[in-house]
Amino acid sequence: MAKNKLDLLYKLESEKEEKLRLNFIQAEQNFHANQQKLNGLNDFRLEYSQQLHQKALQGLSSAGFGQYHAFINKIEQAITQQASTVATAKRVVDQRRKLWLEQQVKAKAIAKLIEKKALEQQHKLAKAEQKMLDEFATNIFMRRKQAQ
């Protein structure tokens, strides 16, 4: 493969890697935001449960207790839904991390191939230069020998 084709391929694979890296970062941010929402819901449930406990100590009607309990159940449903969202977001993060790392390996392999081709080219040039210097030295030696 010609050097410019490899360079183009490396550029395309690097751009794809960058896009996958950004997708991974976005998925991570989404996961953390959803995790914070879940933590907030858990804190809210705890706070509301503590309020219920305080009201119960002060004396709470059965209707009031029912309302608190119903609201806490709604919070728990929201927590269950949010926990599911967090689990999905975590799977997305893991999937995008895997894709990004696989693409990183591809891009690095192409970079290695480019490096290898460049070294081969340097060796060819060095060998050609050495051959030319050997021929030059041989010609000088032969001229001196003929001149004697």
Overview features:
single chain, 148 residues, mainly alpha, Helix Hairpins, rod-shaped, cell projection, Flagellar FliJ protein, cilium, Flag_assembly_chemotaxis_eff, chemotaxis
How do the helices and strands line up, and which of them pair or pack?
Layout: H1 3-58, H2 62-147
Helix pairs in contact: 1-2
Protein name: Flagellar FliJ protein
Keywords: Bacterial flagellum biogenesis, Bacterial flagellum protein export, Cell membrane, Cell projection, Chemotaxis, Cilium, Flagellum, Membrane, Protein transport, Transport
Family: Belongs to the FliJ family.
Polypeptide structure, described:
This protein is mainly alpha-helical. The chain has a single domain, classed as Helix Hairpins. The protein has helices spanning 3-58, 62-147. The model has no long low-confidence stretch (mean pLDDT 92). It comes from Pseudoalteromonas viridis. This is Flagellar FliJ protein. It is a peripheral membrane protein.
